[in-house]
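Researcher: Re-running this chain for the archive, since the previous output was lost when a drive failed. Same request as before.
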Amino acid sequence: MKTRTKLVHGGTKRSQYGELSEAIFLTQGFAYDSPESAEARFIEAGEDEYIYARYGNPTVRMFEERIAMLEGTEDGFATASGMAAVNGALVSMLQAGDHVVSARALFGSCLYILENILPRFGVEVTFVDGTDLAQWDAAIRPDTKAVFFESMANPTLDLVDIEGVARLAHANGVTVIVDNVFSTPVYSRALEQGADVVVYSATKHIDGQGRVLGGVILGTKDFIRKTVEPYMKHTGGSMSPFTAWVLLKGLETIDLRVRAQTASAQAIAEAVEGHAKVARVLYPGLKSHAQYALMQRQLGVGGTMVSIDLAGGKAAAFAFLNALEVVLISNNLGDAKSIATHPTTTTHQRLSDEQRASLGITDGLVRLSVGIEDPDDLVADILQALAAS
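Model: Regenerated structure tokens:
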């Protein structure tokens, strides 16, 4: 099956009623025919046997199977949020004395896990410039257990060469964990490029309409069921059945939405490149972008996000944001509605001035998550807001 067919039909399980839309099994527990069958299920549950919603649920399982089919992995574990997925993927496989190498350019909450939580439990973390393969090579050691990075960094949209990092990691027996949110499962080829574990915040493009929190960890069946599942089911980061149903509906249209969003993002980036009020346009789909060749090899498109660095700093950025009429101000992304964010004062405000400067996050930087509105309306709105700034 091709992608759009998988997104509509993948993983579907129908009850005896033959419902067309996937069923929501809003139950936390399951009944057994006998104490003997309960005993047998607790020893080893069968393919369509469930024990407790924290361990698994038919609706949640449909979502896991559909997103795993899309990504090309053997299995997946659905989580309560994207950060539950990041935390689960890392903590489930690590213990005191382990070493992790991570890209420095990360979403604030991801950085908090690597900077504050893992070291608290005896895990050593080394940070590198994710775009520099020489730094990865120098940082990976014989005792390194995992490498972690965002395939496209938030909010500067720097790309990490998945194939290059994976080659270095695998030469040392290191697990490659990729946070793939900005790249989206529509364009992802992370698995064939060397990723072992792929993590998504399903809150973003997978839902795509700002309704629910969710996440997913994708990998081999052994990793998901023997490493991730025991940790997640006992620590409580599982996805709710209702959330899984909403995300199944989101997956049906993600390919259509993301391709439309990407086309509009490309149009916006081209329209503002060289604008007198703009110091930098950060969009890998521009031929002027330093990583344009890597983008073509790794994704083939620039994606749904555009970052614009206004020359006038924070004052200009705020004036621009206040002048927007179609684009909304929020800190979410991947939504059907276009969203603008000022990272310095919101998503990355916890970082020091020095940290933001090292990552290229300036006071004038505005991150745009491009929605599915008419692209001409979006371009017009952004140009008039730039004029007002």
